[in-house]
Every structure is written in structure tokens, then in C-alpha cells.
Amino acid sequence: MYELIGYEKFRNTPSVRFFDVTIATSNIRDLVFHEGPAVSPNNDEDGNWQFYLHPNQEDNLLALTGGRTFFLVNFAWEQPFHVVRLEAGKEILRLPPGTFHRSVSDPDGSLVLNQGVRTERGNIASEFRVYNSGTIPRLQRLLAQVQQPEETAPAIAPRAEVTELHSHTQYFAA
């Protein structure tokens, strides 16, 4: 399941605050800047949602500026679809390996630091593939049960609760 992780303020001086945001097991870092109300990854030409999924990487996402709304799908979770809001100065969003995820930035954009944990089997090519929901029947069926926002909408609410339990460990089972 995804997790929201707090972090520690360790020092205050006049007009300055210091925070320890260390993810002790992190072995990779990436900094992702969204200019304006960006969607990542973008929809395909037919309007199908696309997602990232890291089979060999845990993400630990900290918004440094702005905010993002994350759309998460993981078929190993009791409720596989979640919408999670990440705002600057708040918690770190931990995503376990095998979680489909996409995000929509606020109208003024956002900057997010990922302190990932990647296994030895993972690399940039294997971890940054884009998965098209239009070609994954199980994902397509799940998304048909929830409201999908306009490309630039920063937040949504599910149209209907997804109540079917999914306990399969395979991401793409039909």
C-alpha cells in the first residue's frame, strides 16, 4: 500500500527552518519539474490514461514547490485505486514497486524530489516505461469505474467506490 511519511524538523533559526528528509535506503535520486498544469505521463492520442510503473523501484516523493495529485493503481491492494494529494512542505509519498502512477500538477506547476530505492535488476530503461491503459484490459476495466478528470484538473473524486477485491500479484492479468 502507498504510505505518507513524515519527516523531522531539526533546527529553527530566525526565518530559517531545517528538515531531515532522508530516506535511509535510497540509492537513486531524480528531480522532476512540471511547468504549469502538466500531466505525467500524458494521455495517448485516443485519450487513454498512461502510467508509469516501476517493477524494481520504490518511489519516495517529496513536493518541494507546488502540488500534484497522484492517481495510483495497484492490484495487490484491497482497494486498487487511490487519489493522493501531495503538497509542498507536507509528507513524503512512498509508492511500492508495481504501482501504476500518474500525476497532474497544480496550475503553477511543481517540483518533486524522488529518493528512490532501486534493486540491482532495475535501471532507467526498465523503470521508466510508459504503460497505456488502453492496452491493459484489467487496468482499462478499473478506470472505467472511476471518474477521469480533464487533463489539467488538479483534483478528482472517484465516481464510484471500487469494491471488487484484487489480490492477484500479476500486474497485467486479463
Structure description:
The chain has one domain: Sandwich (Jelly Rolls). It is 6% helix and 44% strand. The protein is built from 2 helices and 11 strands, in the order ββββββββββαβα. By secondary structure, the protein is mostly beta strands. It comes from Synechococcus elongatus (strain ATCC 33912 / PCC 7942 / FACHB-805) (Anacystis nidulans R2). This is Redox protein.
From the coordinates shown, what is the CATH architecture?
Sandwich
Question: Counting H and I runs of at least 4 residues, what is the number of helices?
Answer: 2
The termini sit apart by: 22 Å
**Percent strand:** 35-45%
Main sheet record: 7 strands, antiparallel
CATH topology: Jelly Rolls
CATH class (first level) name? Mainly Beta
H/E order of the elements? EEEEEEEEEEHEH
Q: Mean pLDDT, nearest integer?
A: 87
Specify the CATH homologous superfamily.
Jelly Rolls
Question: What is the rounded Rg?
Answer: 16 Å
Structural class: mainly beta
Tally the beta strands: 11
Number of domains: 1
What general form does the structure show? globular
Helix content: under 10%
Poorly predicted segments: 151-174
